[in-house]
Structure formats: structure tokens, C-alpha cells
Amino acid sequence: MSSAGHDPSRPAFQDAAGRARYRRILRFASRHLAVTWWFELVLPRFGLRRLAERTRARRMRRFARGFHALALDLGGLMIKVGQYLSSRLDVLPPEITKELEGLQDEVTPVPFEGIRALAEAELGRPLDRVFTTVAPSPIAAASLGQAHRATLGPADSADTGLEAVVLKVQRPGIDAIVDVDLAALRRVGGWLSHVRLVSDRVDAPALVEEFARTSLEEIDYLNEAANSARFAADFAGDDRVSVPEVVWERTTRRVLVLDDVSAIKITDVEALAAAGIDPADVAPVFAEVMFDQLFTHGFFHADPHPGNIFVTPVPDAVDGARPWKLTFIDFGMMGEVPTGTRTGLRKLLIAAASRDGSGMVTAMRDLGVLLPSADTVGLERAVSATFARFGGMGFAELREVDPREYREFAGQFGDLIRSLPFQLPEDFLLVLRAMTLTSGVASALDPSFNLWDSVEPYAAQLIRDERGNAVQDVARRALDAASVAARLPGRLDGLVDRLQDGSLEVGSPRIERQLGRIERVARRVVSAVLFGALLVAGAVLRSGDDVLGTVLMVVSAVPLLHALLAGRGR
């Protein structure tokens, strides 16, 4: 029988358990979609809109609690889905995100015999021929895999220089479970694409595919090992960061063997103090390292929760050197920021550090977060008000704010966001997740930690870098223009001589174009000189008159744009 027309969201499952799992997920989704359709679309047509609005929050919480229970019971990707939904503040109401934010990827461990069998099948030999010891009890058990401490055998230890390692093994049968879960999610995404209430707000099938891509990467341990190596290369020679070494000879798609780098959990304040490490010193370094990943390298750890970061003491540190370093582990969930997006993020960071609501909204539009048609006047006002009230506060100060004020701000801001054509581009969700976790970890280390204290100097450096790049570009253009201008007298003399001796065939359109180019070059030279003068004057004046200096530097953008763009398209 031909397979043409086969629907990938309706796979032929190999066992009854897979079919039952698939149907259970779809039953849950269809039931809650039917409830939403009835309350949000049908009742308002019969004049019962107020009833729908009055019960909306309760229905959202009921859905979130039901999904929370379903995810814990099924495991697999469902826990990842819950964590994913909890961070979709752009498209989901707080009644859902709040309920799901505490969903942890911690499940009952697989019996060691199942782990042993899978590992031996992957490695092609008994475990006791690869490892001297393997601890039967896992040090971590998650929905996709679990990890055990082990000791390398003498031969591998001699080759790698490692002895204590971590053996990470996929949960047996997880490939089939992931296939079932993704098939069900694709089916639900297809349903949602036909519900205008949803499709006007978000491209559900695209979100499912984004989630599927990251999930499939996460269960491929060769991909995780490659991510680890790339991350290590980005921070090679950086005394702030270390990464566990991969034992490539004993690593496959389902088995990963790493150097055991276990140290002090980054949020274990008591252990840090006992080791002579001030947690308040760790917070800003951690923030800086995360900023470097996001804005410099464009390749970042997207799951920097406390369990994935250690503070490793450096006992032999020389005087004046930092006596500890940050050790990152678990590179299954990584984000990559394209160059264009990274530029937009830099603008966003600069606007945030400057408390510039208008600039922040413009950067959001440039990033593709807001569609060009979005009416952003209200958003600019809300962002500016948020900066004015909370912008410079540290975590300790924020705790002193009246909770009712938070609720009022959150309600107004959330309603406004959901009223706009607003959707995060691919990988931007991971950026938000990384930054949220960064702020949370830093605040746990130091309750008085103010993220702005780390953002502002970093943004200032970005401004200097961007300004330097712009000045260099204008300088190159100015030198080119000056070179042309320097050759103009000789060329004009030659042109006049040829006109006088009759050797030049006169074509008026050509002469007009030449003269036009000469005029444009001259104007660009003047613009470049004017830009440089305004920029330098603004930078000098800012030390004494911040307002005037800033105005001059902003105004310098006008001749800069003319110098860069004049003459294009002609």
C-alpha cells in the first residue's frame, strides 16, 4: 500500500503503550480546546461575554494544573513542554506561566540494569571492561537521561589523563517516547493553526517545530559533546570559566562520558563561604560571563540554572589572581544568536542601560519582536514608566515594594503586550530564558545584587565599540573621498585641455553625471568632517554638561547618515 499522503502527525506506533500515550495527550488538548472554544467564541455571540471574562482566569489555572499533573505522570517531553510554556510570557497569560514555572525535570530513576544494558550496547563491550567502577545510584535523573559517577579503566585513564568521570546515559526507550510526543504536539499545533483566536496571535506549528528541533538536539549526546567543545573554545584562556573535558572515545549518540568536575553548586552560599569565597564576588562575574556568551560570542548556555554551574576553587592561584572559576556543565540546550540579531540585542541592552523606553521599543521592532504595524505609543509609555519606577533597583529593594504595586504594573503591562502583534523570533526565547536564570542566580548569590550594575558598564563598552566601528567606517569613507578630491584638480585640468584641443567628444548626460558625482563627493566630505566635529565636541562636553554633550552626539548622527548613504542608488 502506498505511503503517499501519510500524515506525520499520525504515526503508526509500534506498541500499545505508544498509542495510549498519543491518545492521552490529544484527549487532554482537545478537551481544553473545546472548553476554550465554547467560552471564548460561542458564549460571546449570545451576549455572555462577561461570563467568559469572569471565568477566564479560573479556566486558565485549571488547564495549567491539569497539564502539570499530566507532565509529571507521562514524563518524556511533556515536562520540557511545561517548562517551555512557562517561559512564553509573550503569548500566554500569567495564570498559565505561573502555575508551570515550578515544573522540575526530576523523575524516578531508571533501574541501573536498564542503564547498564543500554550503555553496553552503545559501547560494544561490558561496562567493567571500560570503567573500573560505576556507581549504581545516579547523581541526577531527568526525563531524557540520567548520570552516574564512574572511574575510567587504566588504558583510557592513561590516554586521557582523566580518572573520575561522569557517565551520562539516555533513558531506555526515550527515542520512541520523543517520537510519540512530537507527533501529538504537531497534531495539536495543526489544530491551533485553524483557531483564529490563536492563529492571530502566534504561529503554533512554527513554535512546535522550534521546540522539536531543540528537543532532538538535546537527546543527541554527540551534539552535546560538540557544543561543549565549542563553548570551551570560546573561553579558551579565560581564567573565569572552565568546561569538563569530553572522553570522545567513549561517547556516542546515547552515551556521554565527561570529566567529573563536581564542585560547589553556585547558589550554595554556605559552602562558598566555607571555602573562603564571597558569594557577592561571584554574582557580577557570572553575569559578565553570560553577557559575553550572548553579545560577544553569540553562542550561549540556554539552561544556566544552579544545577548546571559550579564554583571551582583554584588552590594554587597566584597572588592577585581570582581563587575560583565558574564551571559550566550540561550543554544539551544551547542557543545561537545570528550576527544581525546580536546587533539588535546590543541595541536593546544599550537602551535598557540608558533607561530609554523609546529606544528599547525601536530595538524590539528591529529584532522582529514587534510587527511594523504595531501601535507602540502605549508600549513606550509603559516601558518608560517601568524604568522610572523599578529601573535602578536591586533585588533587596524590589522586595520592599508593595506587592499591590507589582500586580498593578504586571496587569497593565501584560494586557498591553498581549494586545500587540508580538511574537519572539527563533532562539529569542532561549535568550530570555538565559537572562532570567542569570538574574535569579545572581540575586540568590547576593540579595543586594543589581543587574543594572553589570549591564551599564557592559553597555558602555558596547557603545564605545559601536562608536569606534562607526568612526572607522566614516574615516575610511572620508579618506576615499579625500583621495578622490585630491585628484580632482589634475583631472579637471586634463578635461579642460581635451575640450580645448577638440579631442574630447562632448556628451552632456555623461558630463552631468560626472559633475553630479563630484558634487556628491564634496558634500560627503563635508558631512564626514561635520560628523567628526560634533561627535568629538559632544564627547568632550559630556564630562561637564551631560545634556548638551549628549544632544551634540545624537545630532552628529544626521551628517553621519548623509556621509554613509549619500549617493546610493544613483
Structure explained in plain terms:
This protein is an alpha+beta fold and 570 residues long. The strands form three sheets. Strands 1, 2, 3, 4 and 6 form a five-stranded antiparallel sheet that branches. Strands 5-10-9-7 form a four-stranded mixed sheet, with helices on one face. The N and C termini lie far apart (61 Å).
Radius of gyration: 30 Å
Largest sheet: 5 strands, antiparallel
Class based on secondary structure composition and strand pairing: alpha+beta
Secondary structure tally, helices:
22
First-last Cα distance: 61 Å
How many strand segments? 11
Unreliable stretches (pLDDT < 50, length at least 5) are: 1-9, 470-479, 503-511
Compute the average pLDDT: 77
Strand content: 5-15%
Q: Helix share of residues?
A: 55-70%
Shape: globular
Outline the fold blueprint.
Elements: H1 16-45, H2 49-74, H3 77-86, H4 94-100, H5 112-123, E1 131-134, E2 140-141, E3 145-152, H6 154-160, E4 164-170, H7 174-193, H8 196-199, H9 204-218, H10 221-234, E5 241-242, E6 255-259, E7 264-265, H11 269-274, H12 279-297, E8 299-301, E9 309-313, E10 324-328, E11 334-336, H13 339-353, H14 357-367, H15 377-390, H16 395-399, H17 403-419, H18 428-445, H19 451-501, H20 508-542, H21 546-555, H22 557-565
Parallel strand pairs: 5-10
Antiparallel strand pairs: 1-3, 2-3, 3-4, 4-6, 7-9, 8-11, 9-10
